[in-house]
Amino acid sequence: MRRLSLLGLFVPLALAACASPPPPAPRATDGVGMVAAADPRAVDAGLEMLRKGGSATDAAIATMAVLGLVEPQSAGIGGGAFLLNYDRASKDIDAYDGRERAPMGATANLFLGADGKPLPYRDAVWSGLSTGAPSMIAMFEKAHADHGRLPWRDLFEPAIKLAEEGFIVAPRLAGLLQMMGPQSALKQDPVAGKYFYDANGAPLAVGARRTNPDYAATLRAIQERGARALQEGPIADAIIAQVQRAPRGGSMTHADLRNVTPRRLEPVCGPYRVYRVCGMGPPSSGAIATLSTLGLYERARPAPEGPSSVDDWSAYMWASRIAYADRDHYAADDQFVPVPTAALTDPRYLAVRAREIDVAKAPPATLQPGDPSITVGGPSLLDRWGRDRTAEMAGTTHMSVVDGDGNAVALTATIESVFGSQRMAAGFLLNNQLTDFSLDPVKNGRPVANAPAPGKRPRSSMSPTIILDGDGRLYAVIGSPGGSAIIGYVTKTVIGVIDWKLPMQEAINLANITARTGVAATEVNRLPPGVADALTARGWTLRPTQNEASGLHGIRITETGFDGGADPRREGVAKTTESRPRAK
Ligand code: DON
């Protein structure tokens, strides 16, 4: 969101002539920073950077370096990420794309077996075929060059120390290892099998201390050589060997590792009530789907009532259903296929789509994607693509950071599934991001927009989100893991804070309802009494779930200070540089 115009050419001259622009009006949070993320040790690393005068971007990188060690199942050096950076002085938001790309040797048939049918999903995930070139560190390098204040090498010190001294295994990591079972690719992997299991084959237990000298050595190499350390030399060799090995080896080469191209993009922004919501555009479907969900909800509920209102929940579920139908059909890597991002989030299109919403009853089991060209013109894309049902699974992390100067970062990072492809190299797990492509490149005789192609980025749902108030001041930072459900988790939380006037923590705690298909995964136990029955009476089919895979970590700025929250479904905290974490 850079404000560039012809006037910009004269700015350097004008600056030479007059004093710099007036400082922004003071806020209650000035001089204090906050980090909300999935593990207290990682949050502490971020706070350490903020106390040393680091920026939000510095703190986010340090936090992520520790998460890669203590929450290895979710994200790390072997994966990708999206980062939004809000600069308070300019009110600009930069969006960084660190999404993995398919190797140049990959084709549309990447995940088809010898019989021409898609591989069983788990075989596709637990393979070398699913790994894209790790891109998160290269993205960090770019974001740090633009917004970093501390020296690059300092950002990795807390993680190196913890990796060398050993970290205590948290219940969630131990529990997920237990769930993997003896047949898992993780246990069979020559590197991961030794790291996560003892000589008797028992997985790391809660409370065990684990060192990771390989991770420390990799971080030292990154301190010295930046992202190049992952592109050539021994770490790159280890990545390639693990990707190419049988069974189901991938085609990735050193050239693919060198081809990593993180980008700084414009965020995709749109209005919501009196606010401006900004997120990540393609290859993520995040901003498209969150903006459409919110835009539809706003039209269906001009005067929302609160979390006990069945009409409010029904409208939210309708909005989700419509937004998911459009997102599933159109969103993909816009470098490869035309994605009508602006048309799908255009107020005229949303107004037409919102007319379908009838809160008194549920929509049909199958809800068709719309055709945004009917209101905004341009060629129809509706029948160009086959209907896509790309699957997505658990394993990702989100953090929100605000520094003492009021700059902010929303960072969502991922190796895709739990433990990624379940192959490990140089102290970190390799991603299975390419199963975010549609495994089937053709549906109903038509190509799928999100089909694999050489050098293409798979569609994401990650929705790092920054919300500004009417004056362009920071209002909130939010995001979550959860695969395609991320879109529902994030929009529920935004509705919670903005419409239902809840503190961030309570908005995060609200029931997650993922209304993507005719059956809505619903945390019934977190809904106010009577709401689930009333929704069912209106024709909604709810599938009760508990503790969905959300990991919402958010920060809001109020007139009196920070209002942060950490998802009680995970192990994170929200802490300021000067306070203790608040109760969840
Ligand atoms: O990019 C995406 O949308 C997925 N790879 C994210 C996966 C995920 O969030 C799993 N979370 N628990």
What would your notes on this structure say?
With 584 residues, this protein is an alpha+beta fold. Helix content is 33%, strand content 15%. Strand 18 (519-522), helix 20 (531-537) and strand 19 (541-544) form a beta-alpha-beta unit. The longest helix is centred in the middle third of the chain and has 21 residues, at 310-330. The radius of gyration is 23 Å and the shape is globular. The protein binds 6-diazenyl-5-OXO-L-norleucine. Residues 392, 394-396, 414, 416, 433, 436, 460-462, 481-483, 486, 549 line the site of 6-diazenyl-5-OXO-L-norleucine (DON).
Q: What is this entry, summarized?
A:
It is built from 20 helices and 22 strands.
Characteristic key phrases:
584 residues, alpha+beta, seven-stranded antiparallel sheet, six-stranded antiparallel sheet, 20 helices, 22 strands, disordered N terminus, binds 6-diazenyl-5-OXO-L-norleucine
Topology, element by element:
Layout (H helix, E strand, L loop, with lengths): L6 H11 L16 E4 L2 H12 L4 H15 L9 E8 L4 E7 L22 H5 L10 H12 L9 H9 L1 E2 L2 H10 L4 H4 L3 H5 L12 E2 L2 H13 L8 H11 L9 H5 L4 E3 L2 E5 L2 E5 L6 H15 L9 H21 L10 H4 L2 H8 L18 H4 L20 E6 L5 E7 L9 E2 L2 E2 L12 E2 L2 E2 L17 E4 L5 E5 L7 H13 L5 H6 L3 E2 L4 E4 L8 H7 L3 E4 L8 E5 L4 E5 L6 E4 L8
Parallel strand pairs: 18-19
Antiparallel strand pairs: 1-9, 1-22, 2-3, 2-10, 3-6, 4-5, 7-8, 8-15, 9-10, 11-12, 13-14, 15-16, 16-20, 17-18, 20-21
The protein binds 6-diazenyl-5-OXO-L-norleucine.
